[in-house]
Design brief:
The chain is of the alpha+beta class. Helix content is 50%, strand content 25%. A hairpin with a 5-residue loop joins β6 (61-70) and β7.
């Protein structure tokens, strides 16, 4: 009998102690009434016959959602979205007292679905697939915060992990991107050709100006002087030569 009584006392003692881990707070319910103060991490004693301690996570939680979103043009876009949130520590007792432990299904998900549908309906389907994704994520998060922040939930981020557009639209976007790339490539080629044409024009203008300067400097006296210089150089050659002319237009003959 003593052994049985000892086992019963030990069982009661163990059942009247609960350990609250880091990243959690305890919410004490006594005879159906929620205590206003939360319990911090650590070992806590309570009366198992009249009380219950509910462990509530206050660390960041991730909800993975797959849903179909409407677009501005009336198309349905399949999306995979993550919702990152946590419960405000000092409002944990209010969350459990007014919403209950099933707060994700009761509060967070309905608000998210309504906010996501409301925001994406303002955007074209292609905007969800391109550079406007961050803008859409931020708008959904901000709309959720308006409703949930006062209820004890902190919405950290809404992340659109993947977007699946209708097949025809996806192909049209790819074709448009390819056309834009081709246009950019053609513009690059044309720009390069324009630069080459400009270079050739500048080069031709330089040659023209140089020839003009040379022609303006060739006076009759200079031409005569150059002719005499040429005769002098020819006279130094060991080969016999005959020069016929008046000196203005000489003709050179070699035997």
């Amino acid at each position: 009998m003593k052994k049985t009584a000892l086992i019963c006392l030990l069982a009661i003692g163990l059942s009247s102690c609960v350990t609250i881990r880091q990243g959690e707070v305890g919410v004490k319910r006594t005879v159906g009434k929620i205590s206003e103060n939360y319990l911090s991490p650590g070992a806590k004693l309570f009366n198992p016959f009249a009380s219950r301690i509910i462990r509530v996570p206050i660390r960041t939680e991730n909800i993975e959602v797959n849903l179909t979103l409407p677009s501005k043009e009336g198309l349905n876009v399949e999306a995979e979205i993550s919702i990152l949130y946590h419960i405000e520590e000092n409002q944990a007792t209010e969350v459990i007292g007014t919403i209950g432990m099933n707060y994700e299904a009761t509060m967070i998900m309905p608000v998210f679905r309504a906010a996501a549908a409301d925001i994406t309906a303002k955007y074209m389907a292609k905007d969800m697939h391109t550079g406007n994704r961050l803008e859409i994520e931020t708008a959904i998060r901000d709309q959720m915060k308006k409703i949930l922040e006062s209820r004890g939930f902190v919405i950290e981020a809404v992340l659109m992990k993947s977007i699946k557009l209708p097949r025809g639209l996806y192909e049209a976007i790819e074709q448009k991107l390819e056309a834009e790339q081709d246009a950019q490539q053609m513009e690059f080629i044309l720009q390069k050709e324009r630069q080459e044409a400009q270079r050739r024009t500048i080069e031709a203008e330089g040659i023209r100006d140089a020839n003009k300067i040379i022609s303006e400097g060739l006076t009759p006296q200079i031409l005569q002087y150059k002719t005499i210089e040429a005769y002098r150089e020819l006279s130094k050659s060991p080969n016999a030569k005959m020069i016929i002319g008046s000196g203005a237009n000489p003709i050179l003959m070699e035997p």
